[in-house]
Amino acid sequence: MSRQLRLGAFMRPTTIHTGAWRYPGAYPDANFNFGHLKRFAQTLERGRFDAFFMADHLAVLNMPLDALKHSHTVTSFEPLTLLPALAAVTERLGLVATASTTFDAPYHVARRFASLDHISGGRAGWNLVTTSNPDAALNFGLDEHVEHDERYRRAREFFDVVTGLWDSWADDAFVRDTATGTYFDPQKLHVLNYKSDSFSVRGPLNIARPIQGWPVIVQAGSSEAGRQIAAETAEVVFTAQSNLADGKRFYADVKGRMEKLGRQRDHMKILPAAFVVVGDTLDEAQETRARLDTFVHYESGLASLSIALGHDVSGFDPNGPLPEIPETNASRTARQRVVEWAQRDGLTIRQLAQRIGGYSGLEMVGTAAMIADQMEQWLVEEGSDGFNVMFSHLPAGLDDFVDKVIPELQKRGLFRREYEGVTLRENLGLPRPENRFFPA
Ligand SMILES: Cc1cc2nc3c(=O)[nH]c(=O)nc-3n(C[C@H](O)[C@H](O)[C@H](O)COP(=O)(O)O)c2cc1C
Questions:
Q1: With contact defined as beta carbons under 8 Å apart, do 131 and 57 qualify?
Q2: Among protein residues, the one whose CA lies closest to atom 4 of ligand 1
């Protein structure tokens, strides 16, 4: 069978677009309304999505309050509290959560994800992040964020401790022999006794080995250190390349690194985030995007636009075109993209600010066939193995994706019609890790 797309759904916040909560028919309270989240998860499962992904940031985003006050991205549920509840109302959908290697403790992380894996019947995934928001440090007894290299050094070790704890018990350790009264076989228990400058963890974990052996390991950093840890450990990689050329470079780099380490290329699925806006015609999809953007607060949009251009644009005429902007030290790629958008779509400063403020990464705006074309091209040209989909607005954008784009992908043989297996690993085609202390 030819390669198939893997689709995750980026659900924290429920939609990334900062104006989406104001769209007619949207649920402004969706972040804290379990009924809505349950419906979204069940819709994703109906669409045979691989996973529901719940990011986490450990602090309110570090933006000025004046801008932040307009955004639904400011708060949401704690992921490891939400996902077990969603496990109870779904059967096949993978459940992936972020947990921080900088601010959490390996024993806590190992227990929580092992629990989620058992509760969900083997559908858990751990997005191992070093935490990007510097304000998180202020919530965990530190005055400033831990330095980048140190964060990644700690993350690598953290991974070894967590996976070592998951291997505490052989898969068949719990004999539960009612006749002899033996609950487990002590020969099948390993005490980790991990000690280093960073961690002192005796073990064993007080939870049976996860159903998947280990929950699926996800990684989301793109720096040199982030790519390296992904190559060494990750089975799914979340990333944010905004065009196919960058996607292909990233894909070749990370898969190349993993091959050098002796890992098989298809044991890692690279999923860029893609913002999708579905319409029955291209015009309709573009109108939806333009309408969504009108709900982005102008002042917040202006701040985002100034950052993208590396130039303060607050003095420009909001209803005029973008004037010539001198090159600055800001990101050239971001600047170029903004200038191209402004010219291609003839946008005013206000429209441009609202578009950037709404969402400015990789976007797929069009009919189901057009979105399927783009996804297919990324897959075939090895820009990705699938996508982490961000819906334009909810519930309508999610419903449209599942009812229109998914059937189109299925028709082309690019996406499953039924789940292949029961666990997230089985559905993603990933091997079950052997227990390092109790090899088969
Ligand atoms: C799709 C996606 C999801 C992410 N989720 C989280 C998250 O939940 N929590 C977090 O702190 N960072 C998250 N990140 C950010 C990355 O973990 C990382 O901090 C950022 O990409 C910077 O990477 P670097 O430190 O390797 O340069 C996410 C990134 C992407 C692309």
A1: yes
A2: 220
Ligand 1 binding pocket includes 273 (Cβ within 6 Å): yes
Q: From the alpha carbon of 55, which atom of ligand 1 is closest? A: 8
Confidence (pLDDT) at 374: 98
- Which residue's CA is minimally distant from atom 23 of ligand 1? 221
Give the CATH number, domain containing residue 155. 3.20.20.30
Helix (H) or strand (E) holding 271: strand 269-278
37 domain-assigned = yes
**Ligand 1 pocket residue status of 222, Cβ below 6 Å:** yes
pLDDT in tens, 128-173: 999 988 899 999 999 999 999 999 999 999 999 999 999 999 999 9
Cβ of residue 223 lying under 6 Å from some atom of ligand 1: yes
* Number of compact structural domains in the chain: 1
CA distance 166 to 394: 37
Q: Is the CB of 79 under 6 A from ligand 1?
A: no
Give every residue of the chain whose pLDDT is below 70, as ranges: 1, 329-330
Q: Residue 124, by phi and psi: left (phi above 0), alpha (psi -120 to 50) or beta?
A: beta
Query: Which residues, 6 or more positions from 104, have their beta carbon under 8 angstroms from its beta carbon?
Result: none
Whether 384 lines ligand 1, by a CB cut-off of 6 Å, is no
